[in-house]
Amino acid sequence: THLDAQAYASSMQAQYEFELENWKSSMEFYLQSRKIYSELLKITDSFQKVLFNEKIDHIDQSLRYCNHKIK
Questions:
Q1: Which residues have a Cβ under 8 Å from the Cβ of 33 and sit 6 or more positions away?
Q2: DSSP per-residue letters across 19-48
Q3: b/e for 45-62, b at 16 or more Cβ within 10 A?
Q4: Angstrom distance (rounded) from CA 42 to CA 47
Q5: Full-prediction pTM beyond 0.90?
Q6: Confidence at residue 9, expressed as pLDDT on a 0 to 100 scale
Q7: pLDDT tens digit sequence for 23-71
Q8: Are 34 and 62 a contacting pair, CB within 8 Å?
């Protein structure tokens, strides 16, 4: 779907910023991606929910790391 592609693109941009150690920018893109995946959870079947939950878990780990590096 369009939303899934948008979430993926935000996630990839977040990862790129993460690799460059641009922590704040990375967090912004991860938060955008997380928001979209959270919305997709509400409208998808159970198989997709498992995948989206895994993506959100990965994003949450990256957000915690970025937050740690910003402090």
A1: 7, 8, 10, 11, 14, 55, 59
A2: HTT-HHHHHHHHHHHHHHHHHHHTTS-HHH
A3: eeeeeeebeebbeebeeb
A4: 13
A5: yes
A6: 97
A7: 999 999 999 999 999 999 999 988 899 999 999 999 999 999 999 999 8
A8: no
